[in-house]
Amino acid sequence: MNPPSTGGSLTVVGTGIEIGGQLTPQARAAFAGADEALYLVADPVAVRLLERVNPQARSLHGLYREGKDRLVTYGEMVETMLAPTRAGRDVCAAFYGHPGVFVHPARVAINRARSEGLRVRMFPGISSLDCLFADLGLDPAVSGCQIYHATDFVLYRSPPDMRAFLVLLQISVIGQSAHVERADWSRLSVLVEYLQEFYPPEHEVIAYEASPLPLIAPVVERLPLSGLAGAELNFGMTLVVPPAAKAEADPTMLARLGLSPA
After folding, report:
1. What radius of gyration do the chain's Cα atoms show?
2. CA angle 240-242-245, nearest 5°?
């Protein structure tokens, strides 16, 4: 067990996806009351909102550089969050979406702060996945859902369960370890080829991007898997692969659970 901390605290919050409308009162209060308010968000409107909530807020985005390894940048972000926390200040870091859903520096900072005995909290936000389920009308509990970073999915040859939805994040930067400001689709064909080891070429997939604005519709592109590599896609898109097989109940488990086939 860690000894009681004499340092400050680290609170990590999510801003949601829709600008202005998804910042929870809990997250807003934490950000407003912090001694050190840091943020990493995707839109200048969100920047203005956060800087109104805490006029001393500063961005972590300046740590990025074109071509710089993202893990190096993430390490610098972690230290930027933890240094004032160790010095006894109350730090709040706000991240786009949900801070616990595919936000590497937030996760590392939380874990490291806990290991050092610092006070830590995470307040959830609405993620792009929440928007995806709502906009596409999908319930991940009906057939099950698998979620991978697109690069990891291919790199580790993760076998998809074809009875469940498959969600692949960050398809625009597949195979890239360095920070880039625009999409590079040159490796998307590798993903398509791997998916076609399991799914037929004509299987319909969905390229999706949540909208950050309340009056703007999300981007939803439905196309055959074989046409994905040549499609015009947006930088922030997520790929959804619907099930290609139907789940069948196991007779032994039906009997053990006392359930009928219906």
Report:
1. 21
2. 150
Residue 103 has pLDDT above 70, yes or no: yes
Q: Which of 63-72, 81-90, 116-125, 146-155 shows the lowest mean pLDDT across its residues?
A: 63-72
Rounded Cα–Cα distance for residues 163 and 143 (Å): 7
28, 39, 96, 208: the catalytic one is 96
CA distance 39 to 19: 14
Kindly name the residue from 28, 39, 74, 148 that is annotated as catalytic. Answer: 74
Strands of 219-224's sheet, edge to edge?
145-149, 165-169, 238-241, 204-209, 219-224
Element of type H or E holding 20: none
Question: Which is catalytic among the residues 48, 58, 65, 70?
Answer: 70
Bridging pattern class, strands 9-14 and 90-95: parallel
Is 70 an active-site residue? yes
Distance CA 198, CA 134 (A): 27
Q: 189-232, pLDDT tens digit by residue?
A: 999 999 999 999 999 999 999 998 888 999 999 999 999 998 98
Q: Which helix (H) or strand (E) holds 123?
A: strand 119-123
CA 65 from centre of chain? 21
Is residue 163 annotated as part of the catalytic site, yes or no? Answer: no
Q: Exposed, middle or buried, 92 (CB in 10 Å: 0-12/13-18/19+)?
A: buried
Would residue 148 show up in a list of annotated catalytic residues for this protein?
Answer: no
